[in-house]
Design brief:
EC 3.1.3.41 (chains A, B); p-nitrophenyl phosphatase (chains A, B); five-stranded parallel sheet; hydrolase (chains A, B); Rossmann fold; alpha/beta; elongated; 36% helix; homodimer; 16 strands
Chain lengths: 303, 303
């Protein structure tokens, strides 16, 4: 495998790199911003790429926000973007459920572990759901719950899918219900299984922390519909219609973003060092996932 | 490995089995009861063993209850037991922290994920702690929390240990704080890592579901102090002083109870079929953990 090309400060290298691609897929957290902190020269870099006629797609594993929520975040950050350019893991999961899994109604109801982003995207695809942000699932488990969950009288007869995204409001009741649905035969899906969530320059538990208790307790593994799942790449290509050899994935995580681009046989991958992965992780000998190029920060593409 | 002996209905076999041992270590959930459901003839079976002069120890991985709580449960169930005969995973963890780990004060403070059982046993060993059942940790995470956790201003400078038991009140704030303590270098301990909790004839998420998000997010594995950890066996032997060859472990789980007895080189192990493990799991060819004997239910020992 060729060594990744270091592009920061390399004007000719950057020109050559940008000229190779017509489409750039961007991860957001760790690339454009970290939480509410915008990285330097991001709006200008995005504008530069638009002026060069590049097609931009913002591909995020953040399941807590819908595409509409993300558009608001771009506006707040002063980055030009259209809602249609955003492709999130909640949207990816909703599309998978409505267009690929296609369980016959009414047995297509989803038990959601997660936030409003998951709910909005399920609504946009007319997928029925329960759980999610409903505060009634945040109460304590009572003794009678054990009985009514064990005998299934507390279960919705129509739930055929458990979908887990990052849940900021975990509860033992939700986990107990989700486990019971899985034991009854529900399909187990995850928006994504990122182990960590970068924020404020540190790392917090990611969406994988929501699924981890269920994986252990049920003995079942979810189908993850965020990066690096190629189900997400297929859905993106289906929507945006591009030549993969002319597309480049830009991200901060080797085991999600860069792997996603490599397995998707994109023309290139670019790693930024403003997020999770450190350059030592891909510059070492014999490592599994190596980006085509890297920069210290995305704004370094701007000369 | 010899095939396990089936003792239900085998009067001579039961007599011979009971005569071999002076000490019986009992798992509780799945052996004596399931949740609030007492299995048949349990009080009479316990009384029979006491009349034969056997020493009884109740060894439980349930971290939510202290030894005093357990004594109350035995009383409610009508089973004769002394508080000193109970040995729980919370007590095991408290002893490990106070008598083996012995971090110098004040850096021996524990951040607790779990219920009152953990707190009571830490108190009994004079170990300082925060977290646990304190309701202030159940609130939502605010944006300012990300900053104050990332810059460590929200962290207690004295916390040197994260101890996780089964937590019926999980919160993203607790997980974020626990992860930050682990990243700062805290020791990671678990009362136990049972994947499931039997109740009402079904299975619910166990204490392992509390640690699973932290293991994934931090990349660190806890030292588990419940069964099958031999740290617990050593502590039990140290307290009760018995000849391991004359001791028998009775339990319903191959990968906790029976493994605990085998690895502890006890004279025997007895599996009951009223809990998690099914006989097919140990009667199959080439399986790793096989009990010395088994009965359909503990009450079958009573003729």
């Amino acid at each position: 495998m060729a060594a990744p090309k270091y592009l920061t400060g390399d004007k000719a290298g950057i020109d050559e790199f940008l000229d190779r691609f017509e489409v750039f897929l961007f991860d957001c957290d760790g690339v454009l911003w970290s939480g509410d902190h915008l990285f330097p020269r991001i709006p200008e870099t995005i504008d530069m790429l638009r002026k060069k006629g590049k097609q931009l797609v913002f591909v995020t594993n953040n399941s807590t926000k819908s595409r509409a929520d993300y558009k608001k975040k771009f506006d707040k950050m002063g980055i030009s973007a259209k809602e249609e350019e955003v492709f999130g893991s909640s949207y990816s999961a909703a599309i998978y459920i409505s267009r690929i899994l296609r369980l016959p109604a009414p047995k297509n109801k989803v038990f959601v572990l997660g936030e409003t982003g998951v709910e909005q995207e399920l609504q946009s695809e007319n997928v029925p759901y329960i759980g999610g942000t409903d505060p009634s699932y945040r109460r304590e488990v009572e003794n009678s719950d054990y009985t009514s969950i064990a005998d299934e009288s507390a279960l919705d007869p129509d739930v055929g899918i458990v979908l887990a995204g990052l849940d900021f409001h975990p509860s033992y009741l939700k986990y107990s219900l989700a486990m019971a649905y899985l034991r009854r035969g529900a399909k187990f899906l995850a928006t994504n299984i990122d182990s960590t969530l970068p924020n404020a320059g540190s790392l917090f538990p990611g969406a994988g922390a929501t699924t981890a208790p269920l994986i252990l307790a049920s003995g079942q593994e979810p189908l993850a519909l965020g990066k690096p799942s190629q189900a997400m790449m297929d859905a993106i290509e289906g929507k945006f219609q591009f030549d993969r050899s002319k597309a480049c994935m830009i991200g901060d995580r080797l085991n999600t973003d860069i792997q996603f681009g490599i397995e998707g046989k994109l023309g290139g991958t670019l790693c930024v060092l403003t997020g999770v992965s450190k350059k030592e992780e891909f510059l070492a000998e014999g490592v599994a996932v190596v980006p085509g190029a890297y920069v210290d920060q995305l704004g370094d593409l701007l000369r």
